[in-house]
Each structure stands twice: as C-alpha cells, then as structure tokens.
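Self-study notes.
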Amino acid sequence: MKRVCIFTIIFTIVLAGCVPKGPVTLSVMTHDSFAASAPVIDSFEKANNVKLVFLKSGDAGAALNKAILTKDAPLADVFYGVDNTFLSRALDSGIYAPYASPLLAQIPAQFKLDSQNRALPVDYSDVCITYDKTYFASHNLPVPVTLEDLAKPAYKDMLVMENPATSSPGLAFLLATITHFGANGYLDYWKLLRASGVVVVDGWETAYYTNFSGSSGHGAQPLVVSYASDPAAEVFNATTKLTDSPVGSMLGTGTCFRQIEFVGILKGTRQLGLARKFVDFMLGLQFQQDMPLQMYVYPVNTAAKLPDVFVKYNQIPAQPALLDPALIASNRDQWIQAWTQAVLH
C-alpha cells in the first residue's frame, strides 16, 4: 500500500511536469492605424507559443506621449509607430532597448536613422494631399498643384488636416511647408491657410473618415492631409470593382513629405527574447509583404514584393520634401508651438 502511494505521487509529479505551458503574452503598443492580417499574426503566435496583444494608443504622437509617461512601468513590450518626425523625442526619452536585428542587412541605409539600433525601420510612405476626384470634376474646378494653391480663394474651406502636436501626418505636412517656405516664411503661409478656412482635427482617422468628402468619408472637405497610397487603398477596399480610384494625390515638388515608421523594444520588458523575435518578424518578408494592403505603406525590406494594385494605382512623388532629422529634433517643439499660436489661437 505504501509503495502504491509513493508511485502515485511520483507519477502525478512527472505528469504535471509534462503538461505544456500556455502561451506567453507579448504586448505591442501601436498607433491607431496599425493592422496586420490574421494569418500572419497567427503564424507568429503558433511558431513562438505566444499570444500577441496590440494596444492601440492614438495617433503616433499621442502613442509616443503615452509610452514616455509610462516608461518606468511600461504598458507594453514593443512599440511600433514612431516615425521620423517624432523619432528624436522617442530616442531622447530613453524608452527603447537597443537591438541589432540580423534583418537590418536587408534594409537600405537611407531608412536607418538610429545608429544605436534602438528604433528599427519597418515601412515608409509619403504624406500628401489627397483630393476627391468627383468633387473637383462636378464643380469644374482644377485640382490644386502647389502649396500656394491651397491658400487661394478658390479652395477656401476645402482642406482638413491633422494637428501636428498629436498626429504624425499633420506634423509631416507642417514640415513640408517649412521645407518649402523656410523657417522664416512658413508662419506667413499658415496665416493664409487659416484665413482660407483650413480645418484641424486631432488625428488621421477623423480627418479621412469623418471630414473628407471622398468615397471613404462623408464630410465637407474635398482635400485632406493623408497618404499617396490612398488611391490603391480605395480601389482595394471598394465594395464594387473599380477601374479607377475615386481619389488622387497632389504630387507636386515639395508638396509631400517622406515618412518612415519604426519599431523598438521597450526598456523593462520581461519578454526580451520574444520581443526580439517579434522585431525580426516585422522586418521579415511575411510581415513586410502583408503591410501594403493592411496599412498601405511601403516595405523597407528590399526583397519584399509589392501587390499589383499598389503598383498600378499608387504614385510616388518624384521630389518629396526632406528635412535633416537633426534639424527636426532641434526645432520641432518650437515649430509646433509657433504653428499652434498662428493657427489655433
């Protein structure tokens, strides 16, 4: 009887040790526009016995503010969505743990803006003015071509944009105007836009889906600060088959701003190994080739192939506005503050 009891106890202990552990949770903070297809996410989860939890935290600027405010007790393990307009703020805040992913070898140097590999490039896109083709055709009005055109009386009350203090596309557009008009002239331009009735909202989702009059929105403004990938997105998401996109992009010299988005591991994570695997996963072909039709951005991995609809309907501006990240870093806050005073007060 005694031997049976001992055997039962040992068997129970051994059996308990063989029971597979449940998946570990890996939390990823993102901006509100993050998206990935379910099969792609499932593949990472199954391969690593992990459950991914995505914490959508507002537009890029708002999400970064949340990450900085909680850096002593981080809400997530990984943070995706900071772009080159907010990058210096993220790096200076010390929220990231460096990680030199082996996948960086497949990414061109032009996208690698942090030599310490705290923030690794994932995708890029061009922030441009998107226009509603139907509106301009029905009103027999030419589409604006230059930034100067937007301030003309013919386009009064037609433009909606995002607040640069909380939104990365809004900030990108502000930087495009600074590149074009210079640090001493951009505020005069913005005063003209204010007089011309520019509408300012907090984030891209509101601007595009609420204010914009294009097919995805039902608002009053036929011009919106958005992305050059909008034409492909509209065709791909249409409920009926389209042979042409209902929206177009202003692609004149200096009217668009090149935006690069990054991912980084948050300091303090207890899942460092898994966090590194997820960063590798975002830079790998499966995720990179999924992004164009999920978030309508371009992959940075040179081996990634673009979907046909992206190639057919999107146009890349020949001369997007560019600013040195160091110049953005040293002036961004004062530029935003000055813009706020000129446009919102």
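Second protein, same conventions, sequence then structure:
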Amino acid sequence: MIRNSILALLAVILFSCTDSQSQTDKTSFSAPEFLEKIQATKDAQVVDVRTPGEYEGGHIANARNINWNDDNFIANTASLDKSKPVFVYCLSGGRSGSAAKALRKEGFTTVYEMPGGMMEWRSKDLPLTTDKPADVQANSEMTLAQYNALLETDKTVVIDFYAEWCIPCKKMKPFLDVMTKELSNTVDIIRIDADKNPAICKELNVENLPTIKVYKNKNLVWDHIGYVDENTLREKIK
C-alpha cells in the first residue's frame, strides 16, 4: 500500500516537471500570444524577416527589418544581442521558421516564432505601423563593434566596400553573388555600401572603391583597392 502511494506520488511529480518544462520551452505563439509576449518581455528584439517592400507596407511596432532572402542575413543580425529574446515573424511562418533555426544555430539563446505570421496578425486586427524603430533610425550606420562581430566566425570573411554609382563595383557584383552561394559553407562574402556607412569607412581608412578586405581567423590577410577579377579573388580566398 505504501509502495503504491509512493509510486503515485512520483508519477505526479514527474508529470508536473514534464508539463512545466514543455511550457518553459514553448517558442511558437499565435498572433495574440506573440503580441502579449512582446509586451511582457523586457528588451524584446522584434525582427521582421520579410522583404523591405513588405515591411514598409506595415509591420509590428519597433520591429527591425532583416530580410531572410538577403544573402547576408546572418551578417545583418550583428546588431542584435544574442543574450536577449528575439521575436521573429514573416508573412505566413515559412521564412521566420528558417530564420529562427538559423539564429539558434548562431548562438541566440531565446528565439520566439509566430507561425501564422502577418496573415494571422492582420486577421486578428492587431496593430501595425509604418514607422521605423527609433534605434534603427538613430543607428542605421554599421558600427565598428558590429563590423568586428562579422569576423567572429571560423569561415573566411570577404568584405566588399562598394557604392551603387561605382562601375567596377557593378562589374564585380554578379560573380560575388555566385560565390556567396557557392562558398557559403566556408566563406562569408559581405557587401557594405560605403555611401550609407561613412563612419566605418573612415574608421577603416576605406577611401577608394571598390575595396576588398579578406579575413581569416579575424586577421586581415588581403587588402585590395580597385577592381579584382573572380579568379584572383578565389585564389586569395584559398
């Protein structure tokens, strides 16, 4: 009799622990729950992974737009704090699910998703805004800390400083795009618009375009000014 009572008590404790853990580990929320969770979370980092056009059409208040379809998605998350909660959403959950998985792999400790995305959000008549968050408006330029964060990887890092008006930059873009996808397992190729980031250019003495910097283990191993052809760049990466 006593043995049966002990077993029953253990079963209740085990069930309670399991139930508590499942609640703690919950990372996916309906749209109303997602909003409630954001409002209840201190230092919530809300990330809209849709395209800029979708984002400008209406987004969650204070959400930052980091496009999942951008080849430099992970590099563009350098401004986020990995130790603070991140709330990720897209139109219907597909892109945000992939983005959340990638962020967890990169070491983000707490990542929440909204599988129903903006389609569910709109169906529930939840609030939207077209304003950019204040921190993005004030700090749209890349900082040196963010730049250095791009180098915190085992991969070779190629930084391409460019401008839209730069003809050699335009000639290089097609093969850089190909290399970005082809070498993604071992190389990060990151393009930085010099016109939009004058402070970091000044910090790194980037005075001419294009400028290519190649890093291995955070060490600068090649610093090149001017046009470079694909074969030469591939050799330098090796």
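Instructor comment on the second fold: The beta strands are 45-48, 64-65, 86-89, 111-113, 156-162, 187-193, 211-216, 219-225.
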